[in-house]
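> Could you send the CinA-like protein prediction when you get a chance?

Sure thing. Input:
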Amino acid sequence: MFADIITIGDEILIGQIIDTNSAFIAKELNKIGISVYQITSVQDDREHILQALVESKAHADIVIVTGGLGPTKDDITKHTFCEFFNDELVEDKKVLAHVENLFAKYISNTPISDLNRKQAWVPSKAKVLHNENGTAPGMWFYEDGTTFISLPGVPFEMKHLIREVVVPELVRFYDRPHIIHKTIHTYGMGESAIAQIIEEWENNLPNFVKLAYLPSLGKVRLRLTAKGTDYSILSSAIELESQKLFPLIGDIILGSEEDEELEETISKLLIEKGLTLSTAESFTGGTIASHLTAIPGASAYFKGSVVSYATETKVNVLGVPQALVDTYSVVSEQVAMAMAQGVKKLLDTDFAIATTGNAGPTKGDSDANVGTVYIGIASPTHVFALEFNMGNQRERIVQKSVNKAFELLKKEILKM
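Output:
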């Protein structure tokens, strides 16, 4: 069973906003056994939208459209659906009452206009999907074996409708195959090197099990996918094949949680063990802290960060001895260790991460080559720092270092 996703909006095509809606929808559909065949972004243009709908109808069982449902003249999705289905707009009394209630309750300082009331006009052939978080309702059409679903483009409105309305309705409406994923997280080895080691294993996978390499800076995820009608067979096969990887590359596997990033695993470990963490970041500029605080509940273990970008901040705030800087340079093992110890003491935590290095393009306060970084880890029992060469492109250096820092931290937490 296949679905197409169509996003409508000039703002996507000119790069003004990033299309995160499609990724979310694809993930939710996959969970219920629906594979995404194609994702298309189109202009707020009648002919372009009609063409996309015609093309999707030719090969997809389900077509989900987001965007173009606002009250202004440039939002033409409803009118285009009417043309596509040879339909007309009619006023839905329930939608009108909902729109008027939203304005009375939350937007009382702005009088409701006729444009706002036009949100209650929907194609007569559509089943209206109640959008409790906004004024634009979702719409459900079914014609010639294909389901068309139109949703608002505002992410939090779309997500609520997908989770609470669309997915449950699709589950009731369709018999679907099972799709099972298991993702193995590896760190410290490149995609091609891993592929050579596991080549024989990969060649002997069952024909209903597929492997995908998902490389990023400093890590590679190996995603196993099984698709079929018998859940128990699929589940057993995925588990058996994933276990076969450990004798081959077990030394670089740091988890197998489905769709869970390493920092999420670290978050769970720290909470489970009742441990705390702080960070002292130089060239990473708070990126590690940003990753951590993006996880709900981080306040249970993460006490804070010192972005000690300048040398004097390392000395004056973290207590790094000036003699260490003078003797070994600010980009050194000794300074990374002192930074980790300093922030651990300053914020009274069990663990601390420290980063110092040269991300370029110039050398800054050190003569270290661009790409040279030191990552320090302080634990309740010891402190250490390791040197790495992360290449010569600034963004890659930072992200690879963040991933390596999380990798080192997890290993230390697991020793507790």
